[in-house]
């Protein structure tokens, strides 16, 4: 992976404003059912270069611009990317030692490269979705109990 998750910079206010406007402009063409979209870009010499983009990539670009427009830093990670334990811990917002415990308990699959553990991005995301689902279920049960007990929530 060319860069770590943690070293992504926040966009400036000017970049956020441009990204917001760009995402709105590009979102208009997403209503089309075409598999591809064509755009004209001008290079530094003013020459027009026509580029064809898959509509799926354009949807991703609109999402990316929307996040930047909201002032968020964005990283693009291939689904099959391998992460270090620190990168995986950062993604889950946990400490590296805690993540290593999860790996050793087989909560998340991993492989060893010499003495280093490597985790697939897709496995980290699957774990996160699984625990988020469990947390939502527990919160729903607590809210239902609070309603039954007329606790005012």
UniProtKB/TrEMBL annotation:
Upper classification of the organism: Bacteria, Pseudomonadati, Pseudomonadota, Betaproteobacteria, Burkholderiales
InterPro entries given in the database record: HTH_17 (IPR041657), SinI_DNA-bd (IPR010093)
Gene source species: Cupriavidus pampae
Domain of life the protein comes from: Bacteria
Protein name in the entry: Helix-turn-helix domain-containing protein
The Helix-turn-helix domain, residue ranges: 83-130
Pfam family, one: HTH_17
């Amino acid at each position: 992976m060319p860069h770590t998750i943690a070293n992504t910079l926040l966009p400036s206010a000017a970049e956020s404003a441009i990204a917001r406007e760009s995402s709105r402009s590009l979102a208009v063409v997403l209503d089309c059912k075409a598999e591809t979209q064509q755009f004209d870009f001008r290079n530094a010499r003013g020459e027009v270069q026509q580029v064809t983009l898959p509509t799926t990539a354009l949807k991703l670009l609109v999402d990316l611009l929307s996040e930047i427009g909201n002032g968020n830093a964005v990283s693009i990670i291939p689904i099959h990317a391998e992460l270090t334990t620190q990168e995986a811990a950062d993604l889950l917002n946990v400490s590296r030692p805690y993540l290593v415990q999860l790996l050793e308990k087989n909560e998340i699959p991993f492989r060893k490269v010499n003495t280093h553990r490597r985790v697939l991005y897709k496995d980290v995301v699957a774990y996160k979705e699984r625990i988020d689902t469990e947390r939502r279920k527990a919160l729903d049960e607590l809210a239902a109990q609070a309603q039954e007990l007329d606790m005012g929530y």
